[in-house]
Amino acid sequence: MDLSHGGPGDGPPGGLLGEQIQPPSHHFSPEQRALLYEDALYTVLHRLGQPEPNHVTEASELLRYLQEAFHVEPEEHQQALQRVRELEKPVFCLKATVKQAKGILGKDVSGFSDPYCLLGIEQGVGVLGGSPGSRHRQKAVVRHTIPEEQTHRTQVITQTLNPVWDETFILEFEDITSASFHLDMWDLDTVESVRQKLGELTDLHGLRRIFKEARKDKGQDDFLGNVVLRLQDLHCREDQWYPLEPRTETYPDRGQCHLQFQLIHKRRATSASRSQPSYTVHLHLLQQLVSHEVTQHQAGSTSWDGSLSPQAATILFLHATQKDLSDFHQSMAQWLAYSRLYQSLEFPSSCLLHPITSIEYQWIQGRLKAEQVGMQWSRGAGQAGLREGAGEQQKLSRLLKHLLALQQEELAASFSSLLAYGLSLIRRFRSVFPLSVSDSPARLQSLLRVLVQMCKMKAFGELCPNTAPLPQLVTEALQTGTTEWFHLKQQHHQPMVQGILEAGKALLGLVQDVIGDLHQCQRTWDKIFHNTLKIHLFSMAFRELQWLVAKRVQDHTTAVGDAVSPEMGESLFQLYISLKELCQLRPSSSERDGVLTLDNFHRWFQPAIPSWLQKTYNVALARVQRAVQMDELVPLGELTKHSTSAVDLSTCFAQISHTARQLDWPDPEEAFMITVKFVEDTCRLALVYCSLIKARARELSSGQKDQGQAANMLCVVVNDMEQLRLVIGKLPTQLAWEALEQRVGAVLEQGQLQNTLHAQLQSALAGLGHEIRTGVRTLAEQLEVGIAKHIQKLVGVRESVLPEDAILPLMKFLEVELCYMNTNLVQENFSSLLTLLWTHTLTVLVEVAASQRSSTLASNRLKIALQNLEICFHAEGCGLPPEALHTATFQALQSDLELQAASSRELIRKYFCSRIQQQAETTSEELGAVTVKACYRASEQKLRVELLSASSLLPLDSNGSSDPFVQLTLEPRHEFPELAARETQKHKKDLHPLFDETFEFLVPAEPCRKAGACLLLTVLDHDTLGADDLEGEAFLPLCEVPGLSGSEEPGDVPQTRLPLTYPAPNGDPILQLLAGRKGDREAQVFVRLRRHRAKQASQHALRPAP
């Protein structure tokens, strides 16, 4: 027995976490293995009972398995087998336990019985019957068939039909094939008086029993039933209810009896059984077979799941049964074997959970008692004689106590050993459970669960009371293991060549390994330790590792000093970035732990900042120069219209911004100065790029005769600059100016960031904008000449050519050129080009339209040209937006051309439309007003007008009054050529005349509904000697007259009051156009009449306000 791990109450050894744990060996010496092999062979050869359903039946198969499990050569196996066959057979025993019975007959007057059992083994006469388990009713009873000294008797349970005995008996037999088990159940009959029996009488059945007992002998017990079984039909272990058989057919149903059987050995002849406790031998056998099972699975590249093969399960079952091992000792043997093998063989720790549960259950039941231990020891033949005599009983008692102490020590040692081994695995969990193996997290979690379950056991608490709490032990193991892992990694990264640069690279690799380990702890391990033990591994590992890293980084930066070379600066920058990444992993719980060693680590790198900034600019400048030199100034594709250098430049600037974000200097004032330097360098690179790309364009186009190729390059250059402007415009976002402004608010003066950073940016954007506008202006100038030339040709085309055909050359020119520009320019630059061309085109059209004012044909062509140019420049939303197209110049030109291109009659119609609009907008009656009623009768095609009155007329005569009359005409006259003007009667000296006259015009409805059709009411002052004076004009739109707007005849016609108006004093543009058409008589007549009215109006001033 191995007691090297200390006695009861001992926790893990003091040096547990600092020393390498040596697990107990699972190998036996040759002598031990020979003894164990002998005992195993003995178990198979002297097998008893029927095999279990899942067990191996053939002894040869079991012997072959033992030979493999013990690695015995065939010859040696045969010799051992021969020796075992020659050993004395064991004493075969049936361990029978009479548990209880139910439903037995009631033989007493009370209806109950006082049952007891007689049992024994009849040797030499088998039970008659065919198949196993068959029974033959036996009229003979146990006391008649089995000698009295071999008969066993249970206690009497009084007055019951369901007795409970739970008594165990050991019954020896010689030959299992001819032995049978007999059990008779009797009702104890005591001598009672008739009076006593009558007192117990409860029913007629009881009375019948009294008469029956009167006929039998006094004190004769009643037979209740029996059970007879052949031993060869029993399994090694049986636990069943058996029916009680009758001797006659009187009462066939006599109840059932619950029996447990176990076929065991006594006085086994093997050396191991004679010299060692049974459970110790079983432990060693279990250890040997499990070791073989695990090894077999490893050879097949599979993981053992804790299940034994049928051969191993059969052998161990037979061994435990034959040695009559208690459940506790079987559990203890399994636990000791598994826990020892786990420390030397690789199999899942989950296999330990079942033994832990079993042994804890047995411990709670109090199974590790002296009598239990003694029962196992007494199975050894060497202890058989200790039962005799009082002195021997005392020796046995002392021995049993000693055995109990030894087993407790062994159990405590197994707990301590497994705990120490488990802690050593936890200390080295990074290497023992690598994440490169997929099941490593599950294996570690299983180990922790085993340790937690073990430390929660009542047995563990009683046997190892001084052991520290498991979370504390695991935390100490993790802390020690983290430090050890760091030192191992430091040795791994130790450079072969000594030097400050090599030391920096080694330190960088070490920090990267630390970051990787912390990521693993955070993502995987921390959850496992927290769920099982409430331990925050990540926080603990971060505290330990950051302290170790900080010490080495500080030593390294001190060794570097203030003189930082470019190579050293690059090394320090990578180290700085790695430390930032490490600090970003800082767990939130650490904020409560105060200042960490790595806090403010950036101060160690201050001397390297100038080197970092210069290196960033130099790398970017070299990349820009190389990109421009390799650029052929051709678009990258249909959707990407800038060239390769613009892409490289965007990437270059993105890298600068990325470097700035990586740096993210914590000190606000220094961070501001660093950002200023980054912005300054970026803007300088932008201007350098503009100069380089223009020089590249001149270089490539110098030998080109094709002007189109030169234009292509110019387009690409402009697009590249536009792309650069977009990139530069993103600097505030990329460099996080808003966050920087919040950080430096308390350090810098108000507005200093705005005046510095934004001023730099705006200056760079302004320079880029000027360069872009210059390029776009150059492209626009090339197209403006062609546009002006085509517009001039447009008005010179002969009259027979339709306007749509006349503008085709202009539209084709623009389509070709604008498609070309759209293909080669990005949208922003193309929009700028369109704006310049649109402004120029409108200017040319205005000039040409002014020169062709009197030509209706030319104006019509210009009008259609303007309409098509608007569509062209808008390009269905892909060109200029409507607000950019519809400028004041465009609107004025559109209006002028609309009038210039119209016919004389159309202009006259437009004139009346404008006067009707003026009438509708006039609310003042300073000139007076007329009141009329008008309606149209469609059935008669008559327009009926009732002129009711006029009021507030101007006094135009010298006497302060007027002689008004009204002239009624339907306008325009060309729509109503056959209708003469009508007049009212003249009223003398009346500024408020009541005319009350009705006029009817025979006119179709269609011309009345046209725009501009109106009833012109001209109020005149009659002069006898000279021309009549104009009081004012009123225009009634005919389309609003009742009867014209609908098909129904008008009913009650409302009155309409119309304020009088004058013609425009400065002349009307329409009249000016009509006046220019000298060859048009109708136009000239209309102009003369309207100018006459305007002249009349200008001769009379408005009345002063009353």
Helix content: 40-55%
Under the CATH scheme, the architecture of the largest domain is: Sandwich
CATH superfamily of the largest domain: C2 domain
Tell the overall outline: elongated
The poorly predicted ranges are 1-23, 127-138, 375-388, 1102-1106
Strand order of the largest sheet: 4-1-8-7
Mean pLDDT: 84
Q: Distance between the terminal alpha carbons, to the nearest Å?
A: 138 Å
- CATH topology type of the largest domain: Immunoglobulin-like
Biggest sheet architecture: 4 strands, antiparallel
Describe the overall structure.
It is a single chain. The chain is of the alpha+beta class and 1106 residues long. It folds into six domains: 91-123 and 142-193 and 217-264, Immunoglobulin-like (Sandwich); 346-369 and 402-467, no CATH class; 469-592, no CATH class; 609-775, Tetracycline Repressor, domain 2, CATH 1.10.357.50; 797-901, Methane Monooxygenase Hydroxylase, Chain G, domain 1, CATH 1.20.58; 916-1099, C2 domain (Immunoglobulin-like, Sandwich). 53% of the residues lie in helices and 12% in strands. It has 37 helices and 16 strands. The radius of gyration is 60 Å and the shape is elongated. The model is unreliable at 1-23, 127-138, 375-388 and 1102-1106 (pLDDT under 50).
Task: Write the SSE topology.
Elements: H1 30-45, H2 59-69, H3 74-86, E1 91-102, E2 115-123, H4 142-145, E3 152-153, E4 164-173, E5 179-187, H5 194-200, H6 204-215, E6 222-230, E7 237-243, E8 256-266, H7 271-275, H8 278-299, H9 310-322, H10 327-342, H11 353-364, H12 370-377, H13 390-427, H14 429-432, H15 440-455, H16 458-463, H17 470-492, H18 500-533, H19 537-560, H20 566-584, H21 609-629, H22 644-663, H23 668-701, H24 707-729, H25 731-734, H26 737-744, H27 752-796, H28 803-806, H29 808-824, H30 827-851, H31 856-874, H32 882-885, H33 888-900, H34 904-921, E9 929-937, E10 942-951, E11 964-971, E12 982-983, E13 994-1002, H35 1005-1008, E14 1014-1021, E15 1029-1037, E16 1056-1059, H36 1069-1076, H37 1081-1098
Antiparallel strand pairs: 1-4, 1-8, 2-3, 2-5, 5-6, 7-8, 9-10, 9-16, 10-13, 11-12, 11-14, 14-15
